[in-house]
């Protein structure tokens, strides 16, 4: 029986929630249908992530790494597509002369939600890379796990540690006090930093656009 990783299960559940919300909004509030679906997708994923943090210690993370995870390219494409849609919605709604206040608030909310979702997804991906089984030449520990990240304190990392690592990259587009010893994780974190820098720039531009349009 194929078991899904927490990140993959959360993604599917969030996608279903977003589609259901979009379908409901098509009948209830058609002009908000798209932003309702996008926001619900982000919120559902983040709620699942936050709810899991207390119970996902190092042991649970190690067990979770044995389940199927989404490939990085798919995670980035789908999440960035949703984030790009959020930015487009903000620019479109803010540019309307007869814009609705509720629509503007909901579209603005989608920006920080998209930002947080991207880095939450990356946190689970780093955890999966760290705790997956590796070849002898690739392993960073005696028990055969890939490793690749050195956290202060030397304790095995849990969900909080990977969220910390991912969100630091999201905020600063660079790492802080966590060292990277794996070339594979280094390559992923480089791509993550570029995505974070680009999204932060676009987010700032979108906010400026809204402020100017409201002036």
From TrEMBL:
User: What InterPro entries would the database entry show?
Assistant: DUF1345 (IPR009781)
Q: Which Pfam families match?
A: DUF1345
Q: Which residues cross the membrane?
A: 7-25, 31-51, 72-95, 101-124, 190-212
**rRNA processing recorded as keyword:** no
Sorted keywords for this record are:
Membrane, Transmembrane, Transmembrane helix
Identify the domain of life.
Bacteria
This protein's record includes keyword Transmembrane: yes
Name of the protein described by the UniProt record: DUF1345 domain-containing protein
Origin organism is Stenotrophomonas maltophilia (Pseudomonas maltophilia)
């Amino acid at each position: 029986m194929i078991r899904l990783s927490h990140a993959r299960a959360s993604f599917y559940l969030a996608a279903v929630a977003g589609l259901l919300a979009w379908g409901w909004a098509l009948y209830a509030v058609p002009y908000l249908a798209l932003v309702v679906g996008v926001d619900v997708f982000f919120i559902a994923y983040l709620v699942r992530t936050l709810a899991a943090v207390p119970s996902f210690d190092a042991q649970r993370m190690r067990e979770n790494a044995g389940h199927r995870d989404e490939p990085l390219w798919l995670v980035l494409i789908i999440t960035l597509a949703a984030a790009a849609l959020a930015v487009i919605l903000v620019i479109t709604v803010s540019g309307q002369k007869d814009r609705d206040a509720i629509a503007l608030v909901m579209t603005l909310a989608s920006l920080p939600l998209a930002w947080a979702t991207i880095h939450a997804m990356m946190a689970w991906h780093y955890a999966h890379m760290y705790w997956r089984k590796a070849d002898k030449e690739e392993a960073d520990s005696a028990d055969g796990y890939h490793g690749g990240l050195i956290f202060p304190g030397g304790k095995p990392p849990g969900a909080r540690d990977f969220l910390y690592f991912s969100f630091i990259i999201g905020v600063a587009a660079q790492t802080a006090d966590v060292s990277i010893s794996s070339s594979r994780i280094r390559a992923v974190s480089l791509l993550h930093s570029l995505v974070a820098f680009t999204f932060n720039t676009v987010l700032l531009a979108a906010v400026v656009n809204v402020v100017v349009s409201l002036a």
